[in-house]
Amino acid sequence: MKRCLSLLLPCIAAMTLAQAAPGAWTHQSSEGEDATSAHYYFYSESGGKVDRVRWVWNGGAQHDPTVTDFLIGPDRIAAFLAEPILASGGVIIPPEGYHKRTAEICKKHDILYISDEVVTAFGRLGHWFASKDVFGIEPDIITFAKGVTSGYVPLGGLAISDKVLARVTGKNSNGAWFSNGFTYSGHPVSCAAVLANFDIIEREKILEHVREVAPHFQASLRTLTKSPLVGEVRGLGLMACVELVADRQNVGAESTDLDGEIAKRVDRHCFELGLIVRPIGNMCVMSPPLVITKAEIDKMVSILRQALDRTAEDLTKEGKWKA
Ligand SMILES: Cc1ncc(COP(=O)(O)O)c(C=O)c1O
Fold first, then answer.
1. What is the reported pTM?
2. What's the confidence (pLDDT) of residue 115?
3. Ligand 1 centroid vs 29 CA: distance in angstroms?
């Protein structure tokens, strides 16, 4: 993976993106996952393992590496797919060592480890990729999208490790052609945006900037736990979630309708005050621009605080909630 990733960036600058091996370009993120499965089937056929048909996904914040090892049976697992941080699932940070342990188990059983870095790659956690730099693992395949163009135009892709590449090329391919692509794979307009984006990230030292402001972002948001409506604040880098609850005794339990109502109101007040948060159930999820300054972080947290206060006030007046 190291060679793959270090190759990926300079290669991109030097040649047509669609040819920037090892990897593949897609139009959006899910296609990256489709292309990943195609790679897997080709890979496993070369390795004589076509009987492995299950994919394990770490969704639902399962976060129990023993599941792979003991419950399903390693011989029945084709690949393990995990986000470094579960993003849309509520910004769930894995327990210390979780990714290392799952990666070790996968390696032991020759199960492909696929890291879905659609959210975390290209700066969100202050690094080009989070798998190695933040979590110390080298996946077999990394899928990415969003940050590769900073979202200005659609593009996704996957980076493939030497191990997978060796299995599907040269003699190991047994003369078979691996044929996989999409109409707009590696579209030149999107690829031009990638080059411009990477130039800016490097020139303006955006990764360094994220690493500098992220601790302030995380610490400032955590001050919101003083509000009786906040059950938990969690996050890493420039990703965060403020989880709202009517009853703090219920943190971690199934969210109630009132929890969801609180989040909707906080979201509405934030919008009126000039801040857009992403409401997911009873959570306000935030991924601010990577160039956010400390002053803007302070403004953001101040708006959230006002929105929480206004929500508490409204609900108390309406007799729906009391502190
Ligand atoms: C981690 C992750 N993977 C995959 C996807 C799917 O992306 P797309 O809609 O571009 O296919 C998303 C979408 O938000 C995502 O957050």
1. 0.83
2. 96
3. 5
